[in-house]
């Protein structure tokens, strides 16, 4: 089979490339297509290694993801091609019996589809994210940038194979395939896609550094960008894969659907979600610290508010308590003008009766001295309990009022004081009566003993 030379009239009539699509090492053919694919993959991995930290993952996480994603990417790229491949007569030679089933795995004979590789690669990333417990969107963002690098370089493998070109054209930048009998000029679609991917990588590289606001944003921008370009470029190609026997190009359909899907989600997030960079996976530790600090600040404010409320309640309770207990809390100048609460007089008859009873008891006979001494102590205690409220009442008459008491509270205090005075007076009266009865009994007993002595 004749291998045509490659020419670009834009570079001059004498420009012509006549290299083979492969070279040999120890008798083995090594195709430039494979070399360029490997080079694109290597540069993509090195770039992702360098950017991994800025996405919140480690290089080990990235390697673990690649171990899962690369094999699935190759398998899906081959399956995509095998499933949708059609011969010139519209049949699929891989499934109509004309090919050995082992031909499906002979990828070295050619037949890989980039969209299948993309699907398989992101499927592997999803599996790895489940195992590593890292959000899929993080791997997808970083992998998207790597895909753009790999695709931009890998497309030049189509150039070395003289494949994946477009329809005939007379544009100045057309590519010519020079055969021995004739030169054909085509759209250099490999070049279109390679340049489109380079431009997309440059834009998303700087976007991801400065303006990324949520995980998955770079991935959505990638599939929207690549889908838009591929939808236009695929329409120019002459080797497209089709859906069944229709004229619907599979890659063009997928490109359009992915573009619309990504654009819709980006628009929704921008209008409805309003994400902030603090929500990115890479900022999770800093966000956790901020949330912890905010929670601590909120707790401190709540404690201060609770303490302030408690102090106010305590002050109010203390004010009411001091009013009920007769303590003075306000200064004289703060006392409003108004009628003062009249002090209540205590009865003094109980004290007089008590003194008389004590004198009567002292005149009793000597043998009753111990009984009378025992009776004196409770009498003195009772006297102190009666004198104390009397002294407080007299002090209250002499001192000016120092607390502004509301009328309702004043009435309550007066009623409470009257009840206490009444109970105290009744108790004093009962105690005086008991003491008087005891004294009379002692006197009668003493008189009886003296009469008995006289009789004797």
How would you sum up this structure, described in words?
The chain is mainly alpha-helical. It has 2 domains: 5-275, no CATH class; 349-455, no CATH class. The chain has 11 helices and 5 strands. It has helices at 32-51, 59-84, 114-132, 136-160, 189-210, 217-234, 250-273, 284-325, 349-362, 369-398, 407-455, and strands at 5-7, 22-25, 28-31, 175-178, 183-186. The strands form 2 sheets. Strands 1-4-5 form a 3-stranded antiparallel β-sheet, with no helix packed on it. Strands 2-3 form a two-stranded antiparallel ribbon. Strand 4 (175-178) and strand 5 (183-186) form a beta hairpin. Helix 1 packs antiparallel against helix 4. The longest helix is centred in the last third of the chain and has 49 residues, at 407-455. The protein is rod-shaped. The relative contact order is 0.07.
């Amino acid at each position: 089979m004749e291998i045509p030379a490659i020419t670009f009239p834009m570079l001059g009539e004498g420009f012509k490339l006549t290299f083979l699509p492969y070279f040999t090492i120890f008798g083995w053919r090594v195709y430039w297509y494979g070399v360029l694919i490997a080079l694109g993959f290597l540069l993509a991995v090195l770039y992702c290694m360098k950017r991994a930290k800025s996405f919140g993952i480690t290089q080990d996480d990235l390697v673990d993801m690649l171990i899962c994603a690369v094999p699935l990417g190759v398998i899906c790229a081959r399956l995509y091609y095998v499933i949708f491949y059609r011969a010139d007569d519209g049949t699929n030679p891989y499934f109509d019996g004309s090919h050995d089933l082992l031909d499906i795995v002979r990828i070295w004979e050619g037949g890989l589809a980039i969209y299948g590789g993309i699907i398989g690669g992101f499927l592997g990333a999803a599996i790895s994210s489940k195992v590593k417990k890292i959000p899929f969107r993080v791997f997808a963002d970083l992998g998207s940038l790597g895909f753009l690098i790999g695709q931009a370089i890998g497309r030049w493998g189509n150039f070395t194979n003289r494949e994946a070109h477009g329809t005939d054209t007379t544009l100045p930048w057309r590519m010519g395939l020079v055969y021995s009998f004739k030169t054909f000029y085509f759209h250099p679609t490999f070049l279109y896609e390679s340049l489109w991917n380079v431009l997309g990588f440059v834009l998303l590289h700087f976007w991801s550094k400065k303006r990324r606001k949520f995980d998955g944003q770079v991935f959505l921008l990638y599939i929207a960008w690549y889908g838009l370009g591929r939808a236009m470029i695929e329409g120019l190609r002459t080797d497209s894969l089709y859906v069944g026997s229709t004229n619907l190009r599979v890659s063009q359909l997928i490109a359009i659907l992915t573009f619309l899907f990504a654009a819709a989600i980006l628009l929704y997030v921008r209008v409805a979600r309003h994400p902030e960079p603090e929500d990115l996976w890479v900022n999770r530790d800093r966000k956790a610290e901020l949330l912890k600090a905010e929670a601590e600040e909120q707790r401190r404010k709540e404690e201060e508010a609770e303490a302030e409320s408690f102090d106010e309640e305590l002050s109010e309770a203390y004010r009411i308590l001091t009013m009920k207990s007769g303590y003075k809390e306000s200064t004289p100048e703060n006392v409003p003008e108004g009628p003062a609460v009249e002090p209540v007089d205590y009865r003094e008859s109980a004290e007089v009766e008590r003194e008389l009873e004590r004198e009567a008891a002292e005149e009793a006979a000597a043998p009753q001295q111990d009984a009378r001494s025992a009776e004196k102590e409770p009498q003195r205690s009772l006297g102190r309990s009666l004198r104390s409220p009397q002294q407080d009442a007299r002090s209250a008459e002499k001192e000016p009022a120092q607390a502004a008491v509301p009328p309702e509270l004043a009435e309550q205090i007066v009623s409470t004081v009257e009840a206490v005075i009444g109970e105290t007076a009744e108790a004093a009266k009962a105690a005086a009566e008991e003491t008087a009865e005891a004294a009379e009994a002692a006197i009668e007993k003493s008189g009886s003993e003296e009469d008995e002595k006289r009789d004797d």
